[in-house]
Amino acid sequence: MSDTGQIRIALAQINPTVGDLRKNSDLVSKYAFDAANAGAVVVVYPEMILTGYPVEDLANRASFRKSSIAAVSELAIRINNEGNGDLTLLVGYLGESDTGRPQNCVAIIYRGEVVATYIKHHLPNYGVFDEYRTFAPGNHSLVIRVCGVDIGVAICEDIWQSGGPVAELAKRNIGLLLVPNGSPFELNKDDARLALVQKRAMEIGAPLAYVNMTGGQDDLVFDGDTIVTSQTGQIIARAPQFEDGLMVIDLDVKLASSDPDLIISNPPILKYKKITAGVARRLGDLEQIWQGLVIGLRDYVEKNNFKSVVLGLSGGIDSALVAALAADAIGANRVHGIAMPSKFSSEHSLSDAKALAINIGLNYRIIDIQPMVSNFIENLHLAGLAEENLQARVRGVTLMGLSNQEGHLVLATGNKSELAVGYSTMYGDAVGGFAPIKDLYKTQVWQLAKWRNDLAILQGEVPPIPENSINKEPSAELRPDQKDSDSLPDYKVLDQILQIYIDQDGGRPAALAAGFNPAVVDKVVGLVDRAEYKRRQYPPGTKISNRAFGKDRRLPITSHWNES
Predict the structure, then answer these.
(1) What CA–CA distance (Å, rounded) separates 202 from 312?
(2) CATH class of the domain at 4-273
(3) Helix (H) or strand (E) holding 245
(4) What does 145-164 look like in DSSP terms, one character per residue?
(5) How far is CA 71 from CA 74, 106, 217, in A?
(6) Angle at 433 between CA 431 and CA 439, to 5 degrees
(7) What is the DSSP letter of 434?
(8) pTM
(9) Are 456 and 464 in contact (CB under 8 A)?
(10) Sign of the torsion formed by the C-alpha atoms of 435, 437, 439 and 441
(11) 121/164 Cα distance (integer angstroms)
(12) Nearest alpha-carbon partner for 522 in 546, 559, 530
């Protein structure tokens, strides 16, 4: 039976930028200073923190791999020269195998050198992940001894799969398991992570520290949610979701419990007064979604160097919610809302759009599109559906023109329900560079709008979204007295069917088994299947569900299979 002791570790929950090796190295250095000042002996960073994550096919570029490997060595020297060489750092980076294949690695840095490397074993090949396509897997576990504590290392998917390095580390009787992660946000995934960490900690019989990154990367957003549990699965510490920071904690651990691959330091730390990091409260579902969407949009704008955003304000709930998200993400002064009335626009469309602009404090202007629409019709002789869609396309051209002229990022305002059934106009309301609510069903849009208004009231602020935008019947206003319900089932019914057909991949039989009208089911299924070509051309947007359109759901555009 081994002796027990203490170890102080620091967990860096931070936001990298893909491809920016210099900036990411600066982040690592900053948090190394903070960890050293806090008295930690080990600091752990998220998965591939040096390169950002995911790197996708950048991994296949030899120049990028070589730069990443060089950056690790340079970082080790830098940390030592900055006076923090006695820290043991676990830094994720892009490495390569002896045969030149990319590998997802963690470097163990100590006193100016990379003293050991761990290579990710389990390469996820589902949903948004295609690491199996890109990386070569590792095949050896790693145990290092720091201050007498035998520490095992695993990377993200390594603990999601049974067996492999975790099972081997359990046999090796380690005193602590450190796990760097790049785990994207999904609603309710925080509960799944906690259950997993608790299970693996009990399996290995040692505390487990799970370190996750923050920030947005294209259509993904990372929520942090760094967790530490005891060997019995008890939550010792948990970092706030969506917040950057360093969590420092003292752990009771076994000493000299195994046969390590590398001994960094043998003498255990003398007993001292322990510090605790606390357990952050779990955010409510709507608060999680809001934070995820805000950060996803913020980082897309900032990391791609856009100075501002522009969107069409129709007076409806979708554009109102996107405007509120944008204001929270980058500040109302950088948000430009454009009302674009036509002859079919109602009075409340303009009044609701203006009220929203005043409530939020964004930049607002009106551009009458009717003269442009009339010129198109006169020259192209369009009528019926072509005329209706023309209005949307003129609005799209207007927004893209302003984008070109003034440098704004155009925000598309379509929701998941509309994308699912193709209820949008290509090159019209579907134009844009980013679509913040594309993974929100219409019923979720209403819920989130009400939540954001309630939050404003609690904070003593003006609710951003006009009540009329929330309460009025949805309409694209492309013809007299048009309503969404003319073309679609009630959104409450529609969204339930869509959740079965899309999120659960249940198919038509599952929707019928849930008790929905067969004719309605067949209509919805048919609309979804026919709209794949539209969805492929829609802008990227933040993923918040486990089945977002895009990498989560890959179906052929050309297909004669149908379920009806």
Answers:
(1) 53
(2) alpha beta
(3) strand 245-254
(4) EETTEEEEE--THHHHSSSH
(5) 5, 13, 21
(6) 85
(7) B
(8) 0.94
(9) yes
(10) negative
(11) 7
(12) 530
- For 255-396, strand residue ranges (E) read 262-263, 309-312, 335-339, 363-366
Q: Which residues of 493-505 are buried (b: 16+ CB within 10 A; e: fewer)?
A: ebbbbbbbbbbee
Distance separating alpha carbons of residues 157 and 554, to the nearest angstrom: 22
What are the domain boundaries of the chain?
A: 4-273, 286-484
Structure tokens at 312: 């069409």
Structure tokens at 454: 């309630």
**Rounded distance, CA 118 to CA 106, Å?**
5
As given in the structure block, the two tokens for residue 313 are: 């304000």
Give the pLDDT of residue 1: 43
User: Which residue's structure tokens are 């990386």?
Assistant: 135
Contacts of 314 (CB under 8 A, 6+ apart): 339, 349, 353, 413, 477
Q: How far, in Å, CA of 370 to CA of 345, rounded?
A: 10
Residue type, 189: K
| Token reading at 301 | 């704008």
CA angle 140, 14, 413 (to 5 degrees): 115
pLDDT in tens, 380-431: 888 888 888 899 999 999 999 999 999 999 999 999 999 999 999 989 989 9
- 226 touches 212 (CB < 8 A): yes
First to last CA, the chain: 65
Q: Can you say whether residue 138 is alpha, beta or left, with left for phi > 0 and alpha for psi between -120 and 50 degrees? A: beta
Active centre residues (catalytic): 47, 120, 156
Tokens of 459: 């904070």
Please, are residues 393 and 425 in contact by the beta-carbon 8 Å criterion?
yes
pLDDT in tens, 425-478: 989 989 999 999 999 999 999 999 999 999 999 999 999 999 999 998 876 666
**Predicted pLDDT at 152:** 98
The fold adopted by the segment(s) 286-484 is Rossmann fold (3.40.50)
Query: Count of CB atoms within 10 A of residue 456's CB?
Result: 16
Tokens of 143: 């145990």
- How buried is residue 56: exposed, middle or buried, by Cβ count under 10 Å (0-12/13-18/19+)? middle
Which residues in the chain land under pLDDT 70? 1-2, 345, 475-479, 481-482, 564
